[in-house]
């Protein structure tokens, strides 16, 4: 596992790295194949534009999300790119045996040396019934062994279990350590990342309301213990951002992703609505309140407005990296947003 590098081609005004998280969104009237092809196109374009890394995330049982198998998707993305870092944002480790993840990501690292990240989360990435199908247990009060699973995963990647450990004789194939990142939406992940001396990414894009982001990152910094992979804290945040030629157009495109989140949170599982469907949807007063609450953690507008918003977040939270997720219906809207954000910062760099 390597300490994150200190430079990246595409950064904010303050030198904060910019990366991309894509959920392989499936829009109404499109297929899973279309969604995966769109994710591939986004990864290729992100590399061309100089984004630092491109992550996908594990979700299950959601018609709007096609990234149920991150390792499989990352192998495909690696075959279509050559320099950008690729990884999971994240793999939900309790859904898997640590040895399986060690071998999957070891295989990815063998295929694409020096380019693979492994972001880890402990949520199921699904509803409780689907979590049971994945984990074969339903008791939420059972022991939380996430930290123990990470420890086991690291030993499998390094092939260095103590001699008296039952797994010491197992030969993980391939055994290739990859950089680990702890993901979180509460103080649990912040404490764990600090104790293990690992980078920490807080999910500001869906858990940033009410001061949660600042509290989690402050806790991470205050409790951080240097490790053999990281000498000082490396705080990151996930950010929902969408840029378009005009603020009006950006908000029109963003409403589709916002409605998709609203439907998900109310248990109405379906593909991502189109912008036209979102514009015509009969929102209740309570739903409008929820949309406004979600909008407080989003950065939406023209390229200049989004760049200013990202700079403000970077300054407010003192992060080293922001991973941008674009909630939109179509590939053209996502590509345009990615391009406009990169152009905004390229102009800043040229002017400087």
UniProtKB/TrEMBL annotation:
- Name the SUPFAM superfamilies on file: Bacterial luciferase-like (SSF51679)
**In what residue span(s) does the Luciferase-like domain sit?**
17-319
Entry annotated with the keyword Transmembrane: no
Q: Which GO terms describe its cellular component?
A: cytosol
- Return the InterPro entries for the record: Bact_Lucif_Oxidored, CmoO-like, Luciferase-like_dom, Luciferase-like_sf
Keywords tagged on the record: Monooxygenase, Oxidoreductase
What family does the database annotate? To bacterial alkanal monooxygenase alpha and beta chains.
What protein name does the entry list?
Answer: Luciferase-like monooxygenase
């Amino acid at each position: 596992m390597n300490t994150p590098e200190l430079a990246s081609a595409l950064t904010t005004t303050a030198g904060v790295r910019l990366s991309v998280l894509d959920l392989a969104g499936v829009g109404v009237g499109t297929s899973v194949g279309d969604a995966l092809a769109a994710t591939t196109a986004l990864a290729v374009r992100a590399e061309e534009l100089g984004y630092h890394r491109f992550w996908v995330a594990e979700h299950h049982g959601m018609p709007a999300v096609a990234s149920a198998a991150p390792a499989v998707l990352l192998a495909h993305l690696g075959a279509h790119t050559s320099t950008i870092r690729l990884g999971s944002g994240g793999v939900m480790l309790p859904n898997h045996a640590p040895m399986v993840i060690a071998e999957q990501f070891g295989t990815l690292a063998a295929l694409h040396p020096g380019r693979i990240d492994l972001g880890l989360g402990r949520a199921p990435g699904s509803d409780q019934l689907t979590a049971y199908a994945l984990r074969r247990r339903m008791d939420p009060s059972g022991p939380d062994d996430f930290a123990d699973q990470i420890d086991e995963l690291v030993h499998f990647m390094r092939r260095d279990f103590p001699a008296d450990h039952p797994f010491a004789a197992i030969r993980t194939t391939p055994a290739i350590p990859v950089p680990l990142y702890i993901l979180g939406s509460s103080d649990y992940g912040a404490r764990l990342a600090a104790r293990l001396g690992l980078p920490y990414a807080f999910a500001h894009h869906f858990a940033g309301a009410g001061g949660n982001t600042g509290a989690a990152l402050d806790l991470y910094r205050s409790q951080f213990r240097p490790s053999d992979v990281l000498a000082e804290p490396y705080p990151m945040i996930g950010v929902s951002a969408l840029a378009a030629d005009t603020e009006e157009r950006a908000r029109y495109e963003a409403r589709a992703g916002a409605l998709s989140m609203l439907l998900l949170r109310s248990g109405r599982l379906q593909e991502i609505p189109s912008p036209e469907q979102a514009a015509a949807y009969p929102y209740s007063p309570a739903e409008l309140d929820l949309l406004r609450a979600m909008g407080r953690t989003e950065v939406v507008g023209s390229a200049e407005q989004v760049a200013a918003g990202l700079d403000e977040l970077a300054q407010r939270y003192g992060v080293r990296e922001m991973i941008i997720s674009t909630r939109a219906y179509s590939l053209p809207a996502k590509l345009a947003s990615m391009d406009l954000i990169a152009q905004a910062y390229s102009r800043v760099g040229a002017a400087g």
